[in-house]
Write a structure and sequence with these properties.
By secondary structure, the protein is α/β, with parallel strands linked by helices. The protein has two domains: 6-118 and 247-273, Periplasmic binding protein-like II (D-Maltodextrin-Binding Protein, domain 2), CATH 3.40.190.10; 120-245 and 305-335, D-Maltodextrin-Binding Protein, domain 2 (3-Layer(aba) Sandwich). The chain contains 16 helices and twelve strands. It has helices spanning 5-26, 40-58, 71-79, 92-100, 113-116, 157-174, 177-189, 198-206, 218-226, 253-259, 262-270, 275-283, 296-299, 310-314, 317-325, 330-335; strands spanning 28-36, 61-69, 86-89, 119-128, 148-149, 191-193, 213-217, 234-237, 242-245, 248-251, 287-288, 307-308. The strands form two sheets. Strands 4, 5, 6, 7, 8, 9, 11 and 12 form an eight-stranded mixed sheet that branches. The longest helix has 22 residues, at 5-26.
């Protein structure tokens, strides 16, 4: 018996080493994605698809943990220490704020296709079934008795897109700065609820019964119309002019370096531009940045809408942020300074 012990010992050590290697290979990579409110359903499906892709490509398991909230709130959370590896936010200005805090490089837009915009949307007017207030365009929102629900532009990226869409229409209609500002004051005087995030505003309108019209992204409105619990209670009104909402995505350099997750996080964002990522975006009612990746049957749901862009109408997000949303900016002149 004694002559066999060394061989048995070697086998035991080899088996233990093999198990240790297998456990190390199977160890999860954890990614954290800080995203704006209405992407919840999309990223449930997308994260599952990416995890399958990453496992097939590398043999590794990835666990994506989501942190949702108003886009502006997410910026503050990341700056204050939320250890997100990626930010998938509602607009460029919010990611610029992260770059300004030293969390990522200022050239973040150039790292991914389409200026780091994997999908888009536009601002629509969501009304009660039958459209009892006869709302057909922006001008109808300031009629007596009409209550408007929108997320707060100070905390919500969606709220800022809504505000700029309204401003673009007023600018084209009145062509006079004083009249535009006056109309915007009238519009926000009709706001009955201004929640911190877009999903909270949706709940106030749909579940809480507040207001007559919700300013919302098309993706959120189409989601509600596809849901049998809400589809019979609502209608979409497409205004005569809207804006192309361009949510953007970026690696948080400081955090991926600290977590050693750069390769996985970069692949996670790039997969948004793959045929699978683009089709899932369309399935969840976002307009794909590369429509050629999406079947015509999925693209058919997206109506042709006259839209401005933030670059063409407002000189880009950095200028729009300073002009409209910084302290003392035009939004403060519309609703009064923040308290």
């Amino acid at each position: 018996m004694s002559c066999r012990l060394p061989s048995i010992a070697v086998l035991v050590l080899a088996l233990a080493a093999g198990l240790a290697c297998r456990d190390a290979a199977a160890q999860d990579t954890t990614l954290r994605n800080a995203s704006f409110d209405p992407t919840r359903e999309f990223y449930v499906d997308y994260n599952r698809a990416f995890a399958s892709y990453w496992r097939q490509r590398t043999g590794e398991t990835v666990d994506v943990r989501m942190h949702h909230g108003g886009s502006g709130e997410q910026v503050r959370a990341i700056v204050d220490g939320l250890s997100a590896d990626v930010a998938t936010l509602a607009l460029a200005a919010d990611i610029d704020a992260l770059a300004g805090a030293g969390l990522l490089d200022p050239d973040w837009r150039t790292r991914l296709p389409h200026d780091s915009v994997p999908y888009t949307s536009t601002v629509v007017l969501l009304v009660r079934k039958g459209n009892p207030q006869r709302i057909h365009d922006w001008s109808d929102l300031v009629r007596p008795g009409v209550g408007v629900v929108t997320p707060d532009p100070r905390t919500s990226g969606g709220g800022r897109w809504n505000y700029l869409a309204a401003w673009a229409w007023a600018s084209r209609t009145y062509r006079d700065g004083t009249q535009v500002l006056d109309w915007m004051r009238r519009l926000f005087a009709h706001v009955v609820v201004a929640d911190a995030g877009a999903r909270a505003a949706t709940r106030s309108f749909v579940e809480g019964g507040h207001g007559d019209v919700l300013l919302a992204w098309e993706s959120e409105a189409l989601r509600l119309l596809a849901d049998p619990h809400t589809s019979q209670a609502l209608e979409i009104v497409y205004p005569s002019l809207s804006i192309r909402a361009e949510p953007q995505v970026a690696l948080i350099d400081r955090n991926v370096n600290a977590h050693d997750t750069r390769a996985c996080a970069d692949a996670y964002l790039r997969y948004l531009y793959s045929p699978t990522g683009q089709r899932l975006a369309a399935q969840h009612h976002y307009r794909p940045s590369d429509p050629s990746q999406v079947p015509a049957s999925q693209r058919a749901r997206f109506r042709a809408v006259p839209m401005v862009t933030v670059d063409a109408a407002f000189g880009g997000w950095q200028h729009a942020q300073r002009m409209h949303f910084a302290a003392g900016g035009l939004f403060d002149h519309v609703v009064g300074p923040a308290r």
